[in-house]
Design goal:
Layout: E1 5-7, E2 12-14, E3 22-28, E4 31-37, E5 40-47, E6 52-53, H1 57-60, E7 67-70, E8 74-80, H2 81-88, H3 93-117, H4 128-145, E9 147-149, E10 152-155, H5 157-167, H6 172-184, E11 188-194, E12 197-202, H7 205-219, H8 231-244, E13 255-258, H9 259-270, H10 280-284, E14 292-294, E15 297-302, H11 304-323
Antiparallel strand pairs: 1-8, 2-7, 3-6, 3-8, 4-5, 4-7, 9-10, 10-12, 11-12, 13-15, 14-15
Length: 325
């Protein structure tokens, strides 16, 4: 058996959202299993000598689902998953299947309990201000402690975790979800290095800085000044931008875009059809001018430097909403 590992009082064996690599046998002392709720922690259970903790991730390697904090000076024995998996392979297939099913059932039961505990349905886990806060943390840690590697900015994992928890008091599982979302969109990459360590690369630090500034400005505008753009309007605006880039620019920075040309050529050039009337919403929101008739065609005017950021940043908003869980 491996040598016992000492965990001082009030130190964490692991935290909610951490990458798993082992389960632990408690040899002495005691631990509290907690969940972060707002600015505090709620104790779910207390466990002592002879208990096991961290076993659920043995089968699916999902991030830790709770914090485990020492209530007193304690000792644990780490049982690495790599070694346990070799022993599991020696068990009959049906035994492994039962164990895996039990583990999945426990996880599913925990999800249902969490849902039942909420009143009137679970609140949105990633409201706009939380999205902006988490990306701001990534930006801050990268700017203060990051190192360049080619075009990427490497973000130190321990600094990101400590800043997330201790300074901004957000749960690490939310930060992990945010990084996974940004990774799926091509902005970041999170590589598992083993033993709970990660290499975090930010490929678009400048873009994420710009997004946070823009989103913060939008969030704190007065309601009467807020103009939102839905996902379908983002797609339409991107289509207009495609054609506007081919249009001539006048001395006021305006580009005269033919809506007739867009309707005729959008399917061929964009892969989807944009009808003239589809753009009425963008005209009402003043991203495009009123329609004008000239030379048997319908035109609108727009400024690329004004509409390109709108399309770019609202696309990030809706892409994140689709992938964040």
């Amino acid at each position: 058996m491996a040598e016992p590992k000492k965990i001082p009082k009030d130190y964490y064996l692991f935290r909610d959202g951490d990458a798993p690599d082992a389960m632990y046998l408690i040899k002495s002392g005691g631990f509290a299993i907690t969940k972060t709720k707002g600015n505090s922690e709620v104790t779910i259970a207390e466990i002592g000598p002879g208990s096991m903790v961290g076993e659920m991730a043995l089968f699916d390697k999902k991030p830790r689902s709770a914090n485990v904090k020492a209530l007193k000076d304690s000792e644990v024995v780490a049982l690495p998953y790599v070694a346990l998996e070799k022993q599991l392979e020696e068990l009959p297939v049906w035994v492994r299947a039962i164990m895996k099913t039990l583990n999945e059932n426990i996880r599913e039961a925990n999800k249902k309990i969490k849902a039942l505990e909420s009143t009137g349905g679970e609140a949105e886990r990633f409201p706009p201000h939380v999205v902006n806060k988490l990306i701001s943390i990534i930006n801050f840690v990268g700017l203060r402690y990051g190192q360049k590697e080619g075009a990427a900015l490497l973000i130190p994992q321990y600094r990101l975790r400590n800043t997330t928890i201790q300074i901004f008091q957000e749960a690490t599982n939310k930060m992990q979800s945010m990084m996974q979302a940004l990774e799926s969109l091509g902005y970041m990459k999170v590589e598992e290095l083993g033993e709970g360590k990660q290499k975090i690369s930010n490929f678009q630090p400048d873009l994420l800085f710009e997004f946070v500034e823009w989103y913060n400005d939008w969030l704190f505008k007065q309601d009467k000044d807020k103009v939102s753009v839905n996902a379908e309007e983002v797609k339409l605006l991107e289509g207009v931008i495609h054609f506007a880039k081919k249009a001539q620019i006048d001395n006021k920075g305006l580009r005269k875009v033919s809506l007739t040309e867009i309707q005729n050529d959008s399917m061929k050039e964009l892969g989807f059809l944009i009808k003239v009337d589809d753009l009425n919403g963008l005209i009402e929101k003043k991203f495009l001018s009123e329609k004008v008739m000239a030379d048997n065609a319908i035109f609108v005017n727009t400024k690329l430097e004004e509409v390109e950021p709108v399309a770019k940043f609202w696309k990030i908003v809706w892409d994140l909403k689709k992938v964040l869980r």
